Amino acid sequence: MKAPRFAVAAVAVLLACHDGSTAPNNPESPLQATTVGLTISLPDPSMVLGTRQTLAAWKVLSNGSLIAASPNWSSSNPSVLTIDTRGSASAVGVGQATISATMEGFSASHTISVIPAPSGTSAALVVEAFSMIEFHYPYFPDYWFYAPQLRVHAATGRAVTMLSVGFTIPGLGLIPSWECRVALRPTVSSELNGEVYGDWTFTISDRARATADDVTATIVFIDERGVVATQTVHGRIVAGDLPDTYTGGNNGGACFQGYRPPA
Fold first, then answer.
1. What is the largest CA-CA distance in the chain?
2. Burial, 68: exposed, middle or buried (Cβ in 10 Å; 0-12, 13-18, 19+)?
3. Which residues sit opposite 157 in a β-bridge?
4. How far apart are the first and last CA of the chain?
5. What is the pTM of this model?
6. SS3 labels along the chain
7. How far is CA 110 from CA 4, 14, 71, in A?
8. How many CB atoms lie within 10 A of CB 215?
9. Which domains does the chain have, with CATH numbers?
10. Per-residue pLDDT of the chain (263 residues; tens, 9 = 90+)
């Protein structure tokens, strides 16, 4: 099934959030500039098992400028880290792996360690509300779509940096979590589907649908004391519709008709 424009746009916003930067400015390049090397964005040196992060690559030109590249990606240890053609690396096992990019005879690489999911506890993260919108996309009336709505902030006097969020939907299993380092402010609410992560939409294939109304969000974060903790919260599936407007991440859950926090 070809993904609808809305779902594709959602992924693009999420990846931009993870990288936290844009491609370097590229000054006007003389026509005679040639490729002299390849560089990739420095990924987090460690990943939590079950999370993902996306790498970007640039050609290094002889005049010192950089231009975006689409290299061939590979992993030295696919049992620890896998990587797809877009540079999205998934942590599938505990250990180390070297991610490499090759293009036009040049290469660049980084070694990443995958660590087990943390078991620490911390009261620094406050989850205000969590629910999952269930709706049909107009062009795919036989398929179900799910959009998570998660509103969080740091506790008063505390500091939190988000590391990853994953979701479990009954009958559909675990939605792979995304790794995205985002700092949360005390008492200032952030929509994880809005300003922080972009509008997340999960497309469920084969006309499958959730078998129950309860959903789970698993959040991995680190507090100001350096404690890495996992917090699991439960919510409900609520009926909704395709957003009236889509701006790429600023409207968040409010744009969904029928949005409401879990009872």
1. 64
2. exposed
3. none
4. 34
5. 0.58
6. CCCCHHHHHHHHHHHHHHHCCCCCCCCCCCCCCCEEEEEECCCCCEEECCCEEECCEEEEECCCCEEEECCEEEECCCCCEEECCCCEEEECCCEEEEEEEEECCEEEEEEEEEECCCCECCCCEEEEEEEEEEEEECCEEEEEEEEEEEEEEECCCCCEEEEEEEEEECCCEEEEEEEEEEEECECCCEECCCCCCCCCCEEECCCCCCCCCEEEEEEEEEECCCCEEEEEEEEEEEECCCCCCCCCCCCHHHHCCCCCCCC
7. 34, 22, 14
8. 25
9. 15-21+29-115 (2.60.40.1080), 119-255 (2.60.40)
10. 323 322 322 222 222 233 333 444 455 445 678 889 999 987 678 887 877 788 889 899 988 888 889 999 999 999 999 998 888 888 888 899 999 999 999 999 999 998 887 667 899 999 988 888 888 777 778 888 888 878 888 999 999 988 888 888 898 877 766 666 678 888 787 776 655 555 666 766 667 889 998 999 888 888 888 888 888 999 998 887 655 544 444 333 434 444 444 44
Tell how far CA 41 is from the center of its chain.
16
Residue 47: Cβ-neighbour burial (10 angstroms; 0-12, 13-18, 19+):
buried
Distance between CA 201 and CA 134 in Å, rounded? 10
Radius of gyration of the chain (CA): 20
Report which of 99, 242, 254, 139 is spatially closest to residue 191, judged by C-alpha positions. 254
